[in-house]
Structure formats: structure tokens, C-alpha cells
Amino acid sequence: MTRLIAACAALFAVAALGGCGSSGSGGSTTSASTTTATTTTTAAAKPVVVSIVVENGAPKGGIVRATVNKGDHVVLVVKSDVADEIHLHGYDKKVNVAAGGTARLPFVANIPGRFEAELESRSVQIADLTVQ
Predict the structure, then answer these.
(1) What is the CA radius of gyration of the chain?
(2) Residues 6+ away with beta carbon under 8 Å from 129
(3) pLDDT of the residue at 45
(4) CB 127 within 8 A of CB 52
């Protein structure tokens, strides 16, 4: 752990000195910005979140419709006032949600098509998901 901290400190020191020595050219500053942007872009690869609120055993405002791209990392987030199993058909992904609780159902959208999510024991559709 000490080596890692020392290595990071050395890296920051080199970057700082490189920026100071090239204030006229701007070349090193651009490289540092590019590195930062690349790191930020990599860290910004967040999943697509599809939020669903269930009230009185049905989706609030009607069935939630969402379209995602093939290959997207997706998370269905279901806040429910009833206990049930959330089932994403076609992917056969399931998760239980407690009454008054929130459940997360993560998956990679690698199968193109149209899929429904439902409250399984109630047979109530809560979402219609299209993967293109």
C-alpha cells in the first residue's frame, strides 16, 4: 500500500513539473487534459437506469416504456408498496421486492427485442423494454 501511495505521489509530481516547464507550448497541458478526459470517460460508463414506482399493486402512471441499446448495462429499479417478485421475461431475470422496499435488477441488454417486466405473482406488467 505504501508503494502505491509513493507511486501516485511521484506520478502527480512529474505531471505538475511537466506542466510548469511547458507553459509556452501547451503540449503537456493538452496531454494532461486528454488523460483526465479519458479517465473521466471510462469512469462515466454508468448503467441505464429504468425507474418504476408501484402503487396499489400497479405501475404509477401506467406501464413504463423504455428503449435501450444492445450491449447497454441496464438496471431496473422498482420501488413498490407491495411485496412480489419482479420478473424480466426473455432474460429470465428475477428479484424479490418487499412491501415498501426497492429492488434492483441489473442485466446486460444483449438480446434484441421487446420484453416485459411484471409483478410475477400478480401477473401485472410494470414495464415494456425494447432493446435495439
Answers:
(1) 23
(2) 50, 65, 66, 67, 68, 74, 76, 88, 109, 114, 115, 116, 117
(3) 63
(4) yes
Question: Position of cell 511521484?
Answer: 10
Nine cell digits for residue 9: 505521489
Report yes or no: 87 and 118 within 8 Å, Cβ to Cβ.
Answer: yes
Average pLDDT, the chain: 78
Report helix, strand or coil for 76. Answer: strand
d(CA 33, CA 60): 44
Sheet holding 58-59, edge to edge: 58-59, 48-55, 73-80, 101-108
Which has the closest alpha carbon to 79: 96, 61, 54, 57? 54
Least confident of 33-37, 52-56, 98-102, 110-114: 33-37
Alpha carbons 74 and 88: distance in angstroms, whole number:
12
Q: What is the pLDDT of residues 53-93, one digit of tens each?
A: 999 999 999 999 999 999 999 999 999 999 999 999 999 99
Each residue's pLDDT tens digit, 93-110: 999 999 999 999 999 999
